[in-house]
Amino acid sequence: MAVVYTLLVLLLAVFVAGFILLVMGAINFDFSNSEIPPGVNQPVKLRIIHIILISRAVVGKILENIGICSQVSFVRYMQGRKTLGVDPKLFIKDLWFEKVPVRIYQPKVPSASQRRGVMFFHGGGWVFGSLETHEKLCRSIARGSESVVVSVGYRLAPEHKYPAAYEDCLNATIHFMKNTEHYGVDPANVIVCGDGAGGNLAAAVSQTLAGRSDLPRLRAQILIYPALQALDFNLPSYQQNHGVPLLFRERATFYMLQYLNGNAANLEEVLEGSHIPIDIKLNYRKWVSPDNIPEKFKVRGYKPHVLLDCTTEVYETVKRFCEPNLCPLLAEDAIVHQLPESFILTCEYDVLRDDGLLYKKRLEDNGVRVTWYHLEDGFHGIINSFNSDWLSFSSGK
User: What family is it from (predicted)?
Assistant: First the structure.
């Protein structure tokens, strides 16, 4: 019996050691492909957050390989396992708007007039993120601005491909706009807001509602480092920040393909730019081009990219990238000029920086009032850590 026990202990020790080596090897590989720019404040904190995210992904992959659960399921579980208690300043309730789960945050303090309403769409690359991951942020927005915040738990990829997330956000927003009186909200003061993929969804919803005469006009859109196009992943910011945590260039492309098709079969073609025919690229070049990026954003290691053509087979799988509901930067001027007042946040060390810069120009060219805030030391995802105690960043706050 003692021999069996000793063998079991040894086997367990070998398994644990192998597990640790696998995790450390994956972390080391990811490290070799990552870069913390000198302009980032508190680089050690960013590196620690990066290690935590890599470790979570690696453990998830190991669990997937041994048949316990999928990597995506594990990461989602780890993201959403923290639950916050009662908030002394807010009424918080989970509801359903048109079969879409939402969480509503209403300030307890009485208001002499109708409140502002904020539809919030969380980030996470359309694959991750939930009502839980952005709970602290939504509570902070509701408390700080004394607004009624509606966080939308839209369906995620790859299980639910485009346009599922967009349709959920649109339907939830329309439902709220038709029922604002139930929540003490001014129907003329409803805002759509989101970060990353959520910024994409906010922009798409805003465009769809711009021409609706049966609903009040949206008061504003707030786009926090939004992903707005999939035609060119070789813009200056994608080149300069390709290996900067927390969103690598390859990962941004992967997420977009997951949302589109539920897989990343054409990842290499999209990365090199051989997924869209040249004639179509040239047609959109008036809106998606390095020429529209201010020169000061090109000085940090940018090289113009050669236009590549694509095969019919590849284009057929990704042609919906040309739909504005998926890539809002490609909307026609007739839609863009009807958009409400806008706020755009960009970060210098974010692959998505230029998506925001290009959209800012499009809005301004069409007479839309834009407030633009650029975090010179910011990186993708910095907002999420605004109140993470010792892992927070001043810019995020």
Answer: Belongs to the 'GDXG' lipolytic enzyme family.
